[in-house]
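Data deposition worksheet. Section B asks for the primary sequence of the deposited chain exactly as it was used as input, without tags or linkers unless they were present during the calculation. Section C holds the resulting structure in token form. Section D is free text for depositor observations; keep each observation to a single sentence. Incomplete worksheets are returned to the depositor.
Section A, Depositor: J.P.
Section B:
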Amino acid sequence: MIAEVGAFMLIGGGIKYIDDAFDEGIHSRRLAAMLAPVILAVWLWISAGDPHAATLLAAVLLGVLLTGKIDNSVFLLSSVAVLAGMLALARDVMPLPLAILTLMAVLDEKGNDLADAGRLPMLLTPVFTYRMMMKLGVLALGMLELLPLVYFLVFLGFDIAYEAVGRAGMRLSTQRRLGVSVG
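Section C:
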């Protein structure tokens, strides 16, 4: 289980690093482009051996695809490669959890856009700022025994790494903007 958590953390943090490199200009685009095949390999490796991981990761990918969040060539090429790999592994994806988690991922992405734009009631803003719907979906599927409950922790690893890289990027961006020495 430690390997799964580590793999999910690498994928989550790597996705955020690449996203911030291309969307925000915070990190090195060159390093992001070199990181993408590593993340792709880990994604396919963990998906090939674990139908639960394959289902979670497929829902993440489908969520961003369905909401039009693939917005740079590195993500586009990586997504095509992941989709090709996932199609080869399609027998391992669990249809009902995939459908539920994809819906939750779409809600997270759309809700996050609304939260970022300040267009949600204050009570809902943290729910979508931190993309809680998919996490709650994984927890619910675990409680219903449609996924092993431990995958809630595995998915939290993804999210913790994603958030940590995002926060580190915001600090770096703020330091650069203020002219503070980064090093």
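Section D:
The helical segments are 2-23, 29-49, 51-66, 73-88, 95-116, 125-129, 132-143, 150-178.
The chain has eight helices and no strands.
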